[in-house]
Amino acid sequence: MCSLLGCSASASATRRVKMTTMMLLLVLLTTTIVRCDQQIALTEQLPTVMVAVLVRNKAHTLPYFFSYLEDLDYPKDRMSLWIRSDHNEDRSIEITKAWLKRTSALYHSVNFKYRSEQGKRESEKTSTHWNEERFSDVIRLKQEALQTARTMWADFIFFLDADVFLTNSNTLRKLIDRKLPIVAPMLVSDGLYSNFWCGMTSDYYYQRTDDYKKILNYDQVGQWPVPMVHTAVLVSLKIAQTRQLTFERKNLPAGRYDGPVDDIIIFAMSANYSGIPMHVCNELLYGYIMVPLEAGETVPGKDLEQLTNVLSYIVNEYGELKLKQDLSRFVSDAPKDKLSLSHIYMINLERRSERRTKMRKHFDLLGLDVEHFPAVDGKQLSDKKVHDMGIRFLPGYADPFHKRPMTMGEIGCFLSHHSIWERMVRLNQQEVLVLEDDIRFEPFFRRRAYGVLADARRIGGWDLIYFGRKRLQEEDEKWIDGSEYLVKAGYSYWTLGYVISLEGAKKLLREQPLGKLLPVDEYLPIMFDNHPNDSWASHFRDRTLNAWSAAPLLLYPTHYTGDEGYISDTEDSLRIDGTLPTIGGSKGGAGTVNNDTRDGAQVPASEPKKGDKEQLPNSPTLLAESGIGQGEHDLETKNRRSEL
């Protein structure tokens, strides 16, 4: 019995062991299944990119170039830097070292080599002279960069010149997302120059085409196949055919190329022979580019002016400049003056601090010593205040566009200008530039302003000179005898900026306009006797103001009616009859203030914003001196020359 019981107990124990083992296996199996069933989000790393940069005499652009490069929204551990520099005559190497000292650890790798000896090549006439030796050096270095990227198994190589400012931090991501073998972000300069061609001649040089301006002006937007891109070029090395890309003439198919020794042309033809399309992308504003200097032009002269132009564009667009703190010590402040005038005033509402800040950045760039003149705020005016100030309105006045009375904003605007005229007389200021706070400066503003003022003083007899306005007459305006920069002003709107003499201020005050008030940009044309409304004009007897205008204009509005960010403190305010501006029905759509009056350009959708009504025929002499009037055909010799 005991043995039977023992056997039974033994069997029971065995069964318990088996059951326990099975349960453990089941637990383990269940655990394994749970782990397999878990949905783990797998993240694919972004492609690797090697950025190739050649630097020579770019001390003036490098602080901004590196600041914008550093701010690209792309993982730095997926980026490698390949930088070469030689034959410098400035602090380019010092600036590059300073930036790399802080940032090298952030990037996957950094390959920086340079020659410390100063000065140009013996074969170069100047530092902007491009001879065969210089071309050969650039070709050798770019080929080395391309081969380095291939050897390190980079997915992309991004050739980038050191005078490019990629203000759009998403540039690299956007270009990679295009999934194109060779693509360039379209870059904006202070003229017609950009980093692509739409045509190439049979001897491999720039060819003028209709499509170029359409792409440059964003009339057609997208990715466009072109025969040439340069200066900022992303190449996908994941595509097998890119193994055939080269900068060296000897690597091209035998007997096919008989063109110049030029890195960008050879590279473009290697893509062409390999069946690899090149594209330029203008879907976004990606950034800005400097126009290469010609032989004989200098960095302290032309290039610094161009840099000011481009930085001014950036301030217009973004309201600020990116400049890393450790690089700011390499940027000198521009010395300030008053353009040889007695004074410069900027009219600005105290509550518009953002405009004031933006304008001060422009003044810092341009070296302008400007006094902030607090504007009379229409929002602080009332019918009683206006009446108590002795202001009376011109009988029969109604806005020419909407047949409404004046707004409080327009009254405040007039009072602001009137106060400056009074101050001029009180302080005996002979010549004053009056600026409003919603303006953008045209390229080479300082040089052009000095030219206009020199002409005006030499000829004499002027009372007021428009720097910025809106022309309202279709007919041509007569040039001032003996000047290539000045015309006799016709009926115009806007007081964006004008120079006024002491005698001109006295003339405007003598008519006591506060007793027969109308908007200031109606008053001025009446006073220089070029206004279409004879009834209004008849209320002012001494209409002898001698008004001229700069041609081309030196100032334009920052925004036009319908633009994103457009604000009008004159139009968007109470009228003297107590009513508000009409809401809806404007081209801005329902719920927007209808501002299509003197504040808005009233430019039809098909008409460029800087159209014939706002811009006179170019003065050839001034434009030739400044470089801003170059036609597209002039770009043949400026296709780019900005590397080593």
Automatic annotation (TrEMBL):
<keyword id="KW-0732">Signal</keyword>
<comment type="similarity">
    <text>Belongs to the glycosyltransferase 25 family.</text>
</comment>
<keyword id="KW-0808">Transferase</keyword>
<dbReference type="InterPro" id="IPR002654">
    <property type="entry name" value="Glyco_trans_25"/>
</dbReference>
<keyword id="KW-0328">Glycosyltransferase</keyword>
<feature type="signal peptide">
    <location>
        <begin position="1"/>
        <end position="36"/>
    </location>
</feature>
<dbReference type="InterPro" id="IPR050757">
    <property type="entry name" value="Collagen_mod_GT25"/>
</dbReference>
<protein>
    <recommendedName>
        <fullName>Glycosyl transferase family 25 domain-containing protein</fullName>
    </recommendedName>
</protein>
<feature type="region of interest" description="Disordered">
    <location>
        <begin position="578"/>
        <end position="644"/>
    </location>
</feature>
<dbReference type="Pfam" id="PF03452">
    <property type="entry name" value="Anp1"/>
</dbReference>
<dbReference type="Pfam" id="PF01755">
    <property type="entry name" value="Glyco_transf_25"/>
</dbReference>
<dbReference type="GO" id="GO:0050211">
    <property type="term" value="F:procollagen galactosyltransferase activity"/>
</dbReference>
<feature type="compositionally biased region" description="Basic and acidic residues">
    <location>
        <begin position="631"/>
        <end position="644"/>
    </location>
</feature>
<dbReference type="InterPro" id="IPR029044">
    <property type="entry name" value="Nucleotide-diphossugar_trans"/>
</dbReference>
<feature type="domain" description="Glycosyl transferase family 25">
    <location>
        <begin position="343"/>
        <end position="522"/>
    </location>
</feature>
